[in-house]
TrEMBL record:
Extent of the signal sequence: none
The protein's name in its UniProt record: Glycerol-3-phosphate cytidylyltransferase
Transmembrane segments: none
Keywords attached to this entry: Nucleotidyltransferase, Plasmid, Transferase
GO molecular-function term, one example from the UniProt record: nucleotidyltransferase activity
Cited Pfam families: CTP_transf_like
Residue runs in coiled coils: none
Amino acid sequence: MTVIGYLSGTFDLFHVGHLNIIKQARTNCDHLVVGVHESGAWKGKPTFIPFDERIEIVRSVKFVDRAVKSTPHDTEIWHEIRYNKLFVGSDYFGSERFKRYEEFFMDKGVSVVYFPYTQTTSSSQIRALVNGTIEHGFD
C-alpha cells in the first residue's frame, strides 16, 4: 500500500524550519502532497510573498511530490486526496484545531504525526526582524 502524506502551511518567507518539516514528512510516507495556504490571514498575519511564488517554491523542493492550494481545514482536502498521514509541527499539538482533526480521522485510518518545531528559525522571528521589532538577526 502506498502511504500518502499531507502537510499544509503558508510557507511565507521560506526558511529551514519549513524545509525540515517537509523533509521529515517525506521520510514518513511514499508520496507527499503539500498544501499551500492562499494567505496568512487565517492566522492574523500578513503574507509577504505572493501565493503563486510560494507554491512554486514548495513545488520545487525535491521532497515534495505534489503541491496544491490548501483548503481552510485539512479535513476538507482529505476528501480529494485521501491521505493516510497528516503532518504538522509540534507547536500545534493539543490545539483545539488538531484535537478536532484527530477526532475526525479516528475512524478513517489517518494518523496525525507531529514533528518537532524548529527552534532556531521561524517566520515570526523573520517578520520581527523585517519589521524592526527586534534589533539583531540570527546567531
